[in-house]
Design a protein that fits this description.
The protein is of the alpha/beta class. It has one domain: Aldolase class I (TIM Barrel), CATH 3.20.20. The chain is built from eleven helices and twelve strands. The protein has an eight-stranded parallel β-barrel, surrounded by seven helices. α1 packs parallel to α3 and α9 runs parallel beside α11. It is globular and about 40 Å long. The N and C termini lie close together (5 Å).
Amino acid sequence: MRLYPAIDIFDGHAVRLVKGDFAARKVYDEDPLSAASAWVADGAQQLHVVDLDGAKDGVPANIEHLRRIVRELPVPVQFGGGLRSLSAIEAVLELGVERVVLGTAAFADEPLLASALARWPGRVLVSVDVREGRVATHGWTETIDGNAEEIISQLAERGARQLVYTNVDRDGMLDGPDPQEVRRVARSAAESVIYSGGIGAFTDLEALAALGEPALEGVIVGKALYERRFTVAEARAALGE
């Protein structure tokens, strides 16, 4: 499994939210490139970058920070946040981003998702963000009908085989994931899933690795790394990366 250190950008800074609440944010680094550089210097092999302004407003707002990260650091980057048009997706991929993550657009604009999957095979992931048992969209401010497993199955039928799954209720809480929830999601995924939400100790990572689910590609970790609950090296070892 792979470790994806998270660089969440809001108002130009590297931040973390609590349960997706924009009002409950904490700045961990004034410069997102500085935060990203620290994880790479510590051994990170890939990065997960999110434009929170973009996720909330529907248009990427931190492209220059993304450009600097991709240009300066020699690791693959996946990026999401505000990608709701083919032109926005294309612009990000042209910067050198390896994969894009579509959230709201995947549910609100089915033709867009179909076109993106066909045009950039293997480079488009769909974000399934779950709050109080329902999938959340529009910067986690709205929800849609259906449980996560049903929606994941529907996405697979539409060709979305690679997912990022976030338990928003656990995000930023550091109290660990629910391994059985992760198992269910991994078994629902058509090809692969990256889990995010609640990682607080390297033993949480060991527990996920111990599930032995082939579809569980990796884990996104943010706050626990920023708060030095464990190192990048310890996290990679726990995941068997």
